[in-house]
Amino acid sequence: MHRIAVVALPGVFPYELGVPARFFRAALHDAEPLYSVTTCSLDGAPVQTNADFSVAPTADRTALETADTIIVPPWSAAEISGDPIGLADFADRRIVSFCTGAFTVAASGLLDGLEATTHWCAAEEFARRFPQVRLRTDELFVDSGRILTAAGASAAVDATMHLIASDHGSAVAAAVSRATLAAPHRGGGQRQFVDRPAVIAPAGAGSASDIQSWLMARIDEPLSLAEVADSFGMSVRTLTRRFRAETGRTVGDWFADARVDRARELLETTDLPVDAVAAGSGFATAAALRKHFRERIGLAPQQYRSRFTRAA
């Protein structure tokens, strides 16, 4: 039986803390469990969660010594603290982190040179603190072999289902999926969940802010870069240079993002067909919308609508 230890640190997030026991314990072969799951605190004492209750694990840090897999859920000080677990002592085990638990794993040095992910809200801080880790900001989880890192709460389930399938095959994972009503695999990455408001540059005559506002008022119109430049009495070269200097981006790239965000809004709040959504967000065809949408969101427009629609 594969032994799993889940570490509850102060301010642990209870949802992610409970995911391993719920899903790994549902993995069976001939009605026998394939995993044992032990939840521990460092000293065996109760731990306050980040909710309005505490948990009382039945084990202390010694549970890690016999574990095959160690799981680190997010906890309140994960983004500012080091590695209180001492994960470097368990470099020969499989290490799994959920959400910002990746900070704790990275602080141990075990992620140096490897690919990893964490919640998109914490990605910038993670990249700043751990430049030696190859951060992949869009993935729901990253399996680097010995270490697996997962993004936000639901991604903990994705990662767990992946591990069950990797350990025991898709049939066992499918059985867990049926028992828990959890999808065995979700398409798309974190981009589908990111709220990405358009960043408006400081205002000024002919500034990027002016250009952005002008473009947003015409988001459903087919516009060329030359038309935009003519409207501001600039050459295309001057327009491009000024916009990039103020925003760090090209006009085309920024406007494509803005159009995709407009398409997201229409998909979430209306039942317009995809052709009409494309027209309403400035894409010449539904095919063009699908291309840009998949590049930026990681899903097809209809897939996005089925997950996020608020119409009716």
Q: Could you characterize what this model shows?
A:
By secondary structure, the protein is an alpha/beta fold. Helices cover 40% and strands 13% of the residues. It has helices spanning 14-24, 101-107, 123-129, 153-168, 170-180, 208-216, 225-231, 236-247, 251-269, 274-280, 286-297, 301-308, and strands spanning 2-7, 28-29, 32-33, 35-40, 47-48, 54-55, 69-72, 94-98, 115-116, 134-135, 141-143, 147-150. The protein has a six-stranded mixed β-sheet, with helices on both faces. A two-stranded antiparallel sheet has the order 2-3. Strand 5 and strand 6 (54-55) form a beta hairpin. The N and C termini lie far apart (48 Å). Residues 197-204 have low confidence and may be disordered.
Uncertain spans, ≥5 residues at pLDDT below 50? 197-204
What's the shape? elongated
Strand order of the largest sheet: 4-1-7-8-12-11
**What kind of sheet is the major sheet?**
6 strands, mixed
N- to C-terminal distance: 48 Å
